[in-house]
Amino acid sequence: MIKIEKWLEHEIRFVLGEDGEWWAVAKDVAEALGYRDSNDMTKRMDQQEIQSFNWKKKQTEDYAGCFRDYKYKPQVPIISEFGIYEAILNSRREEAIEFKKWVKQLLKTLRQQSGLKGFAVFRMMDKEHQKNAMDQISQIRNAKPKHYMKANSIANKVVSDNYGFEKMIKKDEMTPEMLRDRQPVLDDTVDLMKVEENLGLDVSVKEAVREKWIKS
pTM of the prediction? Predict the structure, then answer.
């Protein structure tokens, strides 16, 4: 199976691997992220995140049409999701730099929520501490479904408004930039809904979130 995703006018081909995960064509990712070529990108990458895909074995029109640039090269280098993250973190594109800032903020938030002070940041590399942090993430995932149903709607509307859409855009219709902006709005909304319920507060979650996140 093959999927083509467009990011900032770049088409990136994804193939479904034998592991059930989606792998991206290395050449496409390299072009999108501003690398000289795919070799320049993958030489600094964990080799476990790189595989080779033989598109000619599929023998379908879809694959033949999508891999015309590999007409005489049946083996196509592909990279995993983790490989994509590595490629982004090593890229100098402005969007990649913003993504790195977001990742660093996530790590800082995770460090704070796990109870570590800033001077203890190197303990984040301890396996046991990483396990405890992941347990906290699992607790967040187990939040009541009703929180996420309403929160998704609020977050989608806020992001849609900020990007100038008159109607609410669904998550699967959003651009990578919109999805990046959406996550902190969603997190804030879920947290506020849980506080409202636990303390019996009489507040409008929707209005509170919009007041904080709507850009003037």
Answer: 0.62
- Domain extents in the chain: 2-90, 94-213
Given a cut of 80, whether residue 206 has pLDDT beyond it is yes
Other CB atoms within 10 A of residue 66 CB: 20
How far apart, in whole angstroms, are the C-alpha atoms of residue 77 and residue 49?
Answer: 11
pLDDT band at 19; cut points 50, 70, 90 = confident
| % the chain with pLDDT above 90 | 37
Does 44 score more than 90 pLDDT? no
- Cα Dmax for the chain: 66
Distance CA 195, CA 198 (A): 5
Cα–Cα distance measured from residue 77 to residue 61, given in angstroms and rounded to the nearest whole number? 20
Q: What is the DSSP letter of 20?
A: S
Taking 3-state DSSP, the helix, strand and coil percentages for the chain, each rounded to the nearest 5, stand at 60, 10, 25
Phi-psi region of 34 (alpha: psi -120 to 50; beta: other; left: phi over 0): left
Alpha-carbon distance 154 to 211, whole Å? Answer: 12
More confident residue, 71 or 30: 30
Q: Which amino acid is at 102?
A: W
Calculate ∠ Cα 79-140-24, nearest 5°: 10
Evaluate whether 55 touches 49 at the Cβ level (below 8 Å). Answer: no
Q: Token pair for residue 53? A: 């895909």
